[in-house]
Amino acid sequence: MIKVKLLSGNSRIYSYTNMPLIVSKKILKEKGYEVSILGSTNPNKLECDILIILSKYLFNRINETERILSKDSRTVKFIEECRNKCKKVVWLDNSDSTSITHFELMPFIDLYLKKQIFKDKSLYRKKFIGGRIFTDFYYKKYNINYNGKFSEMYPLNIEDEAKLKVGWNIGLGDVINSFGRFFSIYNRFFPDKNYNRLSNPYISDKKRDINIFLKTSVNLSEEIISFHRTKMINELDKISKKNNLNSLIQGERLSQKDFIRTMKDSMIMPSPFGWGELGARDYEAFYYGACLFKPNMDHMDTWPNIFIPNETYIPIDWDFNNLEQKLIHYINDSSERKKIAKNGQRKYLSSISNEGMVQFSDYFIGLIKT
User: Fold this and answer.
1) Cα dihedral angle (278, 283, 286, 290), rounded to 10 degrees?
2) What pLDDT does residue 139 have?
3) Considering 90, 95, 219, 313, which has the largest number of Cβ atoms within 10 A of its Cβ?
4) Predicted local confidence at residue 191, as pLDDT
5) Mean pLDDT, contiguous 10-residue spans, the chain (370 residues)
6) For position 298, what pLDDT does the model report?
7) Residue 234 to residue 110: CA distance in whole angstroms
8) Under a CB-based contact definition with an 8 Å cutoff, are residues 368 and 336 in contact?
């Protein structure tokens, strides 16, 4: 039996990564892999065949202060201690954006997993203004006032490219219930039961009265990051008023009950980028049967990849030039809109089904064996 340990915590953000390993624990054991999740940073407790380190958890646990991790950093010293206790060290980068990385760790680890990566790995040798490929785009196109200097960028050496693999994204966590009042209780005491709570999605082809629904935070501390969301909101508001659409865009805060009721009654749910490309709103749109509109994500790979352009979601240009045309088209063409919404819902539910967990187990084993 191969012993695998994941160093991770129990919070909502960490649970997105932990959940599929918890749910598929029995499947993995039948395949010869005993997986456990530990929060201890005592290297003696982490002795195993394969150690997987969740990046954000370790940084918080050891109070890492360095932006670019030197060989004398707390993180590197911790990894070197662990190397004496295990055969393989895997760095699991759970940062939000495709662009945010810690490739300076490559000499000290055996494998680097990230929930989404550039299809073109050479992009990891390019500096992006604002630290993200989309902030770089908006800065250059709209002359955003930005004087910051992004310091968390270390280029990916060509010889290290083989170590970089696509891990798994937050869609395999219980993102639907994670903002509910009882989530912490379920997550702490019944984590393997959470998927059962997702077995009754809202029927995607029921009659819906709200054309467009978007309610999201725009205060992301850096204008160059929040610019995209603000721009999308303004464009949606303008389009909605021009075409006399029945839309709910921003406005007063909704209770969780009203928020869910609104999603169930919405035809289209746009989901902007935030700190990264993927977010909980993407999966809420799938689950509640709305048609997901999303900035084009052709630049990245993720797994499971349920984001199939014009099949499970509608891609829109980053400058929103085609937003109005696509909105009006899919509001009017209810048959095509419902088909795409149903495809997205089916793909999402399949990824967290029993069969989906078997597929995850095989994918996970394939990753850590390389």
Assistant:
1) -80
2) 93
3) 313
4) 62
5) 95 90 95 96 94 97 93 97 95 95 97 98 94 94 81 88 97 81 61 59 81 90 88 97 96 89 96 94 95 98 97 98 98 96 94 94 94
6) 97
7) 45
8) no
CA dihedral 169, 171, 176, 179 (to 10 degrees): 0
Q: Are 119 and 302 contacting, i.e. CB atoms less than 8 angstroms apart? A: no
What are the structure tokens assigned to 268, written together? 């289209």
DSSP-derived 3-state class of residue 35? strand
66's tokens: 């360095």
Euclidean distance between CA atoms 127 and 39, whole angstroms: 34
Rounded Cα–Cα distance for residues 321 and 313 (Å): 17
DSSP for 182-211 reads THHHHHHH-GGGGGGGGSSPPPTTS---EE
pLDDT for res 204:
67
What is the C-alpha to C-alpha distance for residues 186 and 204, in angstroms, rounded to an integer? 27
* Burial state string for 253-290 with b = 16 or more CB within 10 A and e = fewer than 16: eeeeeeebebbbbbbbbbbbbbbbbbbbbbbbbbbbbb
- Are 92 and 53 in contact by the 8 Å Cβ rule? The answer is yes
